[in-house]
């Protein structure tokens, strides 16, 4: 995705574009408002993964033979050992290395002879690893005073400086802190990116290039050392081992210069390519430089003087540490009319702040009144006027001296018809190894001690100098023109490819396999009926409960049999009421279902490829895991399913929850701190319950994904929490929505999206707690007491590696929250010891702080028995009620529940515990239907006559008699069984496995790229464990029941002892640890069966992969 062409055919057009670009807002990445690059730039790992094209090329492609005409045919390029025989995982590992340590880079994929991916990336929420190593000089009060002292003639604007040093980034010793004064965001650019992109595109058009993937360094300083140390020596010093992302293998990183200590692969510079293309009248955005210059000054008309003009780049800040300052000083101090040297600094002083090795203090060049001043104040010189390239070519000798790294101008200077005085340097460019002293240039010592004598040598050896100029001109015309660049890159990439070897991506990723299976599982079920969608009429007046939601679900299922939702809309039973939200990714509409007492729905539609996957996953998570939770607690929105439309959209149907979002509440005038704490406590219990039920990790639990529902009157909610029943009375219910990024375990297998297999006990609550706190401290005025409470609660994360210091002030809390509450930070940053804590731990931590305040909101206590106000109603009765066209039919829907029970085959287990469970469930369901029926009869009493007429309900007594007969029937069937089965033996069950701790899956989605690792995991996994958490849940419900069929004291004590081991087992640990093995086997089979079937087996190279895949499948067959 680009906004403008890579180059223009006239300088005027290019310059016009550059001026217009400063005025225009050209966002190419809608997720980040400060990303206004010409070429789409990924701002996070998700965007990189979406666009990197992890697909395979032709494994059996023929080997490319380098033609004998290639200038580099006889040269061999030494490949770093960590670039040899790399696995497929090296790509994402190298991305993370560059992205997280250096912020930006470019990923390139060449496939089928074309650049199939050219993907710049820049980490939007970048945090460096070295801010603790940087200090303000002690002579300055703060950062502003330091920077203001160095601003020179320019007025210092503190709004353009990021005062959070952890968000600075660097280019070795040069630190970058600039931000936009309005948005307070980092300025993101893409200077020279289009030039590099064009170079590789033209390479593929003009040379045979193998399928290959590599990275390009966006900066001039190299990125990776051969010995595994930090590459930015200015920041870290010499030989500091990598503090992070030290992988066994890396995908090659291409840079424009390096020293022998670095493993980067050298490439022609953007300046080299721009120069060659200006001959074709191609002028690249960013510089619009014109290199079509004729250097035709005759030798005898050139000045016998050495010239240098350049900016004060480089790490050093004095003439002793910066050779450019030193050469300017040498020239300034030279006496006499016949000077050997004309050298100076041009433009503005490049007074960027440096961080030098050996010192933690920030430094820069000491400038006063636009003149360099040394520390003693004895040495002083100013800027000189710049000289054009043509003017410089009027000198016989041109000094080339390093700046920050090699001076890229050397390429041009070799063709300017002057002798190059090349200062010795450890830095190398792509052709440096072919340049020979006194053949292509005249060498100068690194410390410039022989500079003047070497210039004098040139004067004394004029004929030799003309020979050197001839040689350098031939070199320039031979090697560093377009054809030479093509030859070099072709040879380099072919040699690299041979050493990198062949690696394969999974033909279909683990996530794709998961999404595919999730989509297949989304079936439409509903009771057998002669009715159709056209009969949809009145929704029962029973309030939000599990039976109502299930019944509406069945109605929507039957409605999808034909042309949904058009059929319902045309029949007047589904009405669009409003557009809730719309953006480029999709639209969210609110609908009303039913002709009377309508039920509100939300339908989210998207055509975006990535969002479609999220919608499918959310439909699965909702229908297969979360919906079942609503039988127990009201804190989630119900999911009704998914449908596709004729225009390629994916539509997700959810329950609409009335109320404002938690985000609106936190920012609004109705915010109440006491109530906020109560909401956090409810969320703790909600997440703990969900994790024990289905191992939920929401991974997007932010304030806009929580709706605050306020019921008409206070409700009582019971949570089975920490082995107790915690009961609350509340006027506000936080309801969680949007499960597209969530993780759950269903049928013993992990189903995740952001992190497919990772379960975290603290992720969600940490996310919502920190994000909500940030909104409060930035937008609400709270009193001192509340502030003290907030600080106390925030110290839940203190004294850990996540945050070592205790929060003692609002400033310290604000600074922490600013750094750690971006989505990327909340998801990706390690939580260290906090991963051992749970939502329950946070609940009791907050409760301990809150209790002494005796808030009126804090209506929380424990009770001996459990009751769910959501577990009401009968879904089939609701389905029949909605399909009814008269009160008689509606009344019949209740009557049918009692009739069906008496005439169907009801379960009659021999196990006493299951007898209890069966009768408890039957009785509870019948009782709640009866209560709803009585309410219905009361509402329709004015229409009903005692004896009943056609199309009118029967007598009230008839309904109640059916109910009483049903209750009597249950009593006759089950009471004798309860009495008869008193002396059964203990129920046997086996807990195999270590569930004392949560064991994180020893694999990620990327592990499936490495078959050898999968073989090892399969061979060592324990596949004998069984997940008994669903049985544990049933046992708890039986034990906590307080109805007429509750266990008597002796039975309860008996079963509590019988199931003590199961009840004391952590259900989340059990689900997770068992799912680790099940998911590994399931996905391994799917992934490698598919890979094997898709494999091109026509060449020897493929045999290795065939053997690996076959071995994996054989191991799995043994398990099955």
TrEMBL record:
InterPro entries linked: CAP10, Kinase-like_dom_sf, O-Glucosyltr/Glycosyltrsf_90, Prot_kinase_dom
Organism of derivation: viral metagenome
Entries under Pfam families matching the protein: Glyco_transf_90 (PF05686)
Residue intervals passing through the bilayer: none
GO MF, one annotated term: protein kinase activity
Domain annotation Protein kinase: ranges: 574-960
Gene3D superfamilies, per database record: Transferase(Phosphotransferase) domain 1 (1.10.510.10)
Name of protein: Protein kinase domain-containing protein
Signal peptide as annotated in the record: none
Lineage: unclassified sequences, metagenomes, organismal metagenomes
């Amino acid at each position: 995705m680009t906004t403008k062409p890579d180059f223009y055919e006239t300088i005027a057009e290019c310059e016009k574009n550059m001026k217009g670009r400063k005025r225009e807002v050209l966002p190419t990445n809608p997720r980040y408002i400060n990303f206004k690059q010409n070429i789409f730039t990924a701002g996070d790992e998700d965007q990189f993964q979406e666009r990197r094209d992890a697909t395979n090329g032709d494994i059996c492609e023929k080997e490319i033979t380098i033609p004998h005409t290639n200038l580099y045919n006889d040269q061999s390029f030494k490949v770093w050992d960590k670039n040899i025989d790399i696995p497929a995982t090296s790509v994402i590992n190298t991305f993370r290395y560059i992205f997280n340590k250096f912020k930006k880079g470019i990923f390139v994929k060449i496939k089928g002879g074309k650049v199939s991916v050219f993907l710049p990336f820049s980490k939007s929420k970048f945090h460096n690893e070295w801010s603790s190593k940087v200090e303000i000089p002690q002579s300055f009060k703060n950062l502003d005073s330091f920077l203001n002292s160095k601003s020179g003639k320019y007025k210092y604007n503190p709004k353009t400086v990021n005062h959070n040093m952890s968000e600075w980034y660097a280019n070795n010793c040069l630190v970058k802190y600039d931000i936009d004064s309005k948005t307070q965001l980092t300025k993101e650019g893409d200077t020279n990116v289009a030039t590099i992109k064009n170079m590789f595109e033209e390479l593929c058009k003009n040379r045979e290039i193998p399928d290959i993937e590599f990275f390009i360094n966006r900066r001039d300083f190299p990125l990776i050392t051969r010995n595994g140390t930090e590459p930015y020596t200015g920041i870290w010093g010499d030989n500091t081992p990598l503090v992070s992302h030290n992988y066994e293998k890396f995908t090659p990183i291409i840079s424009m210069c390096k020293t022998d200590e670095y493993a980067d692969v050298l490439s022609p510079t953007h300046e080299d390519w721009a120069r060659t293309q200006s001959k074709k009248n191609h002028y690249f955005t960013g510089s619009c430089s014109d290199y079509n210059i004729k250097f035709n000054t005759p030798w005898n008309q050139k000045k016998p003087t050495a010239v240098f003009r350049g900016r004060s780049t480089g790490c050093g800040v004095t003439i002793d540490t910066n050779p450019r300052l030193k050469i300017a000083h040498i020239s300034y101090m030279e006496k006499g009319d016949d000077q050997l040297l004309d050298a100076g600094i041009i433009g503005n002083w490049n007074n960027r702040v440096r961080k030098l090795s050996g010192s933690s203090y920030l430094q820069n060049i000491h400038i006063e009144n636009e003149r360099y001043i040394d520390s003693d104040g004895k040495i002083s010189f100013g800027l000189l006027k710049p000289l054009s390239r043509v003017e410089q070519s009027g000198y016989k000798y041109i000094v080339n001296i390093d700046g920050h790294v090699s001076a890229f101008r050397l390429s041009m200077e070799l063709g300017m018809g002057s002798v190059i005085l090349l200062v010795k340097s450890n830095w190398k460019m792509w052709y440096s190894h072919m340049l020979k002293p006194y053949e292509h240039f005249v060498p100068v010592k690194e410390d410039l001690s022989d500079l003047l004598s070497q210039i004098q040598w040139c004067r004394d050896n004029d004929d030799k100098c003309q020979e050197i100029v001839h040689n350098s001109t031939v070199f320039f015309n031979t090697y560093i023109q377009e054809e030479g660049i093509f030859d070099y890159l072709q040879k380099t990439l072919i040699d690299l490819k041979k050493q990198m070897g062949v690696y394969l991506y999974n033909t279909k990723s683990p996530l794709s396999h998961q999404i595919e299976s999730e989509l297949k599982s989304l079936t439409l079920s509903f009771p057998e009926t002669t009715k159709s969608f056209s009969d949809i009429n009145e929704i029962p007046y029973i309030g939000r409960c599990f039976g109502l939601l299930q019944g509406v679900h069945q109605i929507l299922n039957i409605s999808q049999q034909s042309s949904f939702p058009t059929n319902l809309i045309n029949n007047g039973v589904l009405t669009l009421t409003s557009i809730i939200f719309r953006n480029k990714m999709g639209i969210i509409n609110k609908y009303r279902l039913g002709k009377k007492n309508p039920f509100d729905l939300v339908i989210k539609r998207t055509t975006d490829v990535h969002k479609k996957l999220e919608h499918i996953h959310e439909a699965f998570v909702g229908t297969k895991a979360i919906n079942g939770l609503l039988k127990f607690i009201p804190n989630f929105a119900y999911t009704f399913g998914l449908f596709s439309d004729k225009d390629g959209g994916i539509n997700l149907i959810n329950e609409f929850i009335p109320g404002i979002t938690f985000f609106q509440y936190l920012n609004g005038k109705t915010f109440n701190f006491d109530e906020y704490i109560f909401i956090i406590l409810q969320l703790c219990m909600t997440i703990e319950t969900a994790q024990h039920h289905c191992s939920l990790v929401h991974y997007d639990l932010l304030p806009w994904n929580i709706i605050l529902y306020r019921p008409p009157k206070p409700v009582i909610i019971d949570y089975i929490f920490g082995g107790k029943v915690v009961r609350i009375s509340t006027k506000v219910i936080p309801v969680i929505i949007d499960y597209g990024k969530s993780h759950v375990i269903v049928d013993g297998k992990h189903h995740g999206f952001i992190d497919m297999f990772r379960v975290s006990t603290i992720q969600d609550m940490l996310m919502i707690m920190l994000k909500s706190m940030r909104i409060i401290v930035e937008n609400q005025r709270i009193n001192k007491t509340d502030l003290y409470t907030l600080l106390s609660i925030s110290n839940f994360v203190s004294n850990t590696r996540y945050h070592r210091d205790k929060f003692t002030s609002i400033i310290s809390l604000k600074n922490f929250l600013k750094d750690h509450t971006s989505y990327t930070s909340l998801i990706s940053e390690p939580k260290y010891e906090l991963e051992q804590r749970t939502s329950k731990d946070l609940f009791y931590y907050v409760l301990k702080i809150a209790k002494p305040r005796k808030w009126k909101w804090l209506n929380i206590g424990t009770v001996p028995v459990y009751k769910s106000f959501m577990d009401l109603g009968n879904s089939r009765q609701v389905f029949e009620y909605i399909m009814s066209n008269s009160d008689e039919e509606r009344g019949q829907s209740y009557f049918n529940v009692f009739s069906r029970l008496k005439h169907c085959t009801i379960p009659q287990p021999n196990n006493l515990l299951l007898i209890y469970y069966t009768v408890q469930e039957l009785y509870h369901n019948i009782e709640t239907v009866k209560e709803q029926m009585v309410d219905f009869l009361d509402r329709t009493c004015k229409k009903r006559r005692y004896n009943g007429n056609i199309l009118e309900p029967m007598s009230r007594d008839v309904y109640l008699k059916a109910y009483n007969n049903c209750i009597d029937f249950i009593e006759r069937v089950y009471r004798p069984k309860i009495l008869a089965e008193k002396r059964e033996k203990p129920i046997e069950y086996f807990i195999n496995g270590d569930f004392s701790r949560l064991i994180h899956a020893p694999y990620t989605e990327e592990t499936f790229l490495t078959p050898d690792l999968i073989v090892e995991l399969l061979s060592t996994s324990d596949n004998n464990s069984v997940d008994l958490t669903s049985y544990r849940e049933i046992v708890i419900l039986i034990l906590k029941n307080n109805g007429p069929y509750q266990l008597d004291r002796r039975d309860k004590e008996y079963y509590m002892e019988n199931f003590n081991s199961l009840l004391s087992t952590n259900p989340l640990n059990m689900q997770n640890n068992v799912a680790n093995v099940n998911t590994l086997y399931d996905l391994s089979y799917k992934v490698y069966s598919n890979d094997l079937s898709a494999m091109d087996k026509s060449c020897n190279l493929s045999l290795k992969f065939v053997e690996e895949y076959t071995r994996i499948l054989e191991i799995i067959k043994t398990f099955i």
